[in-house]
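Sequence, please.
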């Protein structure tokens, strides 16, 4: 017997950005597992070959009830985002849930030594990319009855709530997402469009590897002595939020592993 969550998601089209790894990949898998009978997944990232492998993994695990469309997309490129919806096959355009997950962090430099290219890539991906994706999808939602309906789930961070040394630009981008999300929820109050934010604390993904420019030893040191969250932990919350009754908006979620109490307050085993 299908669960209430599965029934509410049945027949929907879900779009996940940054779906080639980490939280994005786990979110795609969790949607498929939760509602395997009738679901469409549009998975975007820059690594199209990886997305194709994930599509095959989903098919092998849950069967043909979930249709997966892998799409190469760099959200930091405004022209790619602008033409995105029109480039989709007609059967995948009627999107119901947008998960704005694509994002990254580069470096730990402090002002005035932050590289221009790091500033640019973080803002163009984390902020401009998220806003442009939202603006590309919102017209689909607003055409529906009752002023519009659909879900926008933005993946933020504890960094958007608490700034910390060495993370000034990343923290600024996540704070911008938080403000954009809150403003949009107010702007869409007369519709059935739900605007939600999920803010993870410490999660072990490729995040730190990217931050340290591919230095895995430095990345591993971040998690030494800790039990960080997994991408699956965050994915479960994202899918839970999307599968609530339409009148229920889980507007704001902050998720820590047990050893974390704030952005820089963590217990490490010696």
């Amino acid at each position: 017997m299908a669960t209430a969550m599965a029934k509410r998601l049945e027949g929907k089209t879900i779009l996940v950005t940054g779906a080639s790894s980490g939280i994005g990949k786990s979110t795609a898998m969790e949607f498929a597992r939760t509602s395997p009978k009738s679901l469409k997944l549009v998975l975007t990232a820059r690594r199209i070959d990886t997305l194709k492998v994930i599509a095959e993994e989903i098919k092998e695990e849950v069967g043909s009830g979930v249709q997966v469309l892998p799409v190469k997309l760099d959200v930091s490129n405004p022209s790619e985002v602008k033409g995105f919806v029109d480039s989709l096959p007609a059967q995948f355009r009627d999107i119901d849930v947008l998960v704005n997950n694509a994002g990254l962090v580069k470096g730990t430099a402090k002002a005035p030594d932050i590289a221009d290219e790091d500033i640019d890539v973080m803002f163009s991906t984390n902020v401009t990319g998220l806003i442009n994706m939202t603006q590309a999808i919102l017209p689909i939602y607003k055409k529906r009855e009752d002023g519009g309906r659909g879900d926008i789930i933005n993946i933020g961070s504890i960094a958007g709530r608490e700034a910390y040394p060495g993370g000034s630009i990343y923290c600024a981008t996540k704070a911008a997402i938080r403000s954009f999300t809150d403003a949009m929820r107010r702007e869409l109050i007369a519709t059935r469009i739900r605007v939600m934010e999920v803010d993870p604390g410490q999660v072990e993904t490729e995040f730190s590897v990217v931050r340290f420019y591919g230095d895995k030893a430095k990345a591993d040191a971040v998690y030494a002595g800790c039990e960080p969250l997994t991408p699956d932990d965050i994915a479960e919350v994202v899918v839970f939020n999307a599968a609530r009754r339409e009148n229920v908006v889980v507007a704001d979620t902050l998720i820590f592993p047990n050893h974390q109490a704030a952005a820089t307050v963590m217990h490490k085993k010696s």
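The two ends are 47 Å apart (CA to CA).
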